[in-house]
Amino acid sequence: VLSDQSVRIKPLRESDEPLKIDTKVGFFNGAAIEHFGMITLSEFEPSTQEYTVEFAEKLPSWIETGKECVPYCFLSSHVSVTNSTFMNSTDCGVLTKADNTTIDNCRFYNLEKVAAFVLCSFFDPSVGMMEATAADGVVIKNSTFDNCGKKLRGGGMGGRAAIATDVGMRSGASIKNVSIINNTFRNMPNNCINIMDAKDVVITQNTFEHIPADKQVYVDEYSENVRIYDNRTE
């Protein structure tokens, strides 16, 4: 910390990509991102591989040396995936960690891992911070999920589900404002929806075809304000 509005940031890996003006940086307080700073000035020093960054806002007092933070400037401000089919893959369908992501009218068939995966950072001691940023504003609607989510992504990452938030390794809610609306789930070998480390989630008007109640929606103990209503079992 250099002042109440500026810090020095060292990337975990060598990088000279600019931290762009008018983009945000999220600061972790423990497991969850609890402050965002909007960049007003950024300078990179090649000899030390460090950035000096000034923000429009004053920094909270809990930001100190050693705190992790993640830049959002490398992501699109909006992502839209529509009218698309993902099928017969040993991996995932859509992975997103950007704000303002919409998945609409898509079909996910026979995907071994999570069909729609909303990611957030977690810390791996052998590598450092992974899956940087935490998405705010994700809508998954009007889509079909058929036989997805048999296997975990990357060994222990993610849940066996068609739709999942986070990787379930941080124990703090950072992903925000997720809406899962009017989707159809069938032939699911595991859970349909896993909500982990997320807050302000709406799950409504979805159809679960021959899916037992305990496999429809799983919510972990760290998620907050998850509303589940007006769904159908057929």
Task: Briefly say what this structure is.
By secondary structure, the protein is an all-beta fold. The protein is built from no helices and 24 strands.
List keywords for this structure.
mainly beta; six-stranded parallel β-sheet; 234 residues
Percent helix range: under 10%
Distance between the termini: 56 Å
The spatial strand order of the largest sheet comes to: 6-9-14-17-20-23
Number of DSSP strand runs:
24
SSE pattern:
EEEEEEEEEEEEEEEEEEEEEEEE
What does the average pLDDT come to?
89
Strand content: over 45%
Radius of gyration over all CA atoms, rounded: 19 Å
Number of helices: 0
Q: The biggest beta sheet, please?
A: 6 strands, parallel
Low-confidence residue ranges: none
Tell me, briefly, the overall form: elongated
- The helix/strand class is mainly beta
Topology diagram in text:
Layout: E1 6-9, E2 24-29, E3 32-45, E4 50-55, E5 69-71, E6 79-82, E7 85-89, E8 94-96, E9 101-104, E10 107-111, E11 116-118, E12 120-124, E13 128-134, E14 136-141, E15 144-148, E16 161-165, E17 175-181, E18 184-186, E19 191-195, E20 198-204, E21 207-209, E22 217-219, E23 224-229, E24 232-233
Parallel strand pairs: 6-9, 7-10, 8-11, 9-14, 10-15, 11-16, 14-17, 15-18, 16-19, 17-20, 18-21, 19-22, 20-23, 21-24
Antiparallel strand pairs: 1-4, 2-3, 2-5, 3-4, 12-13
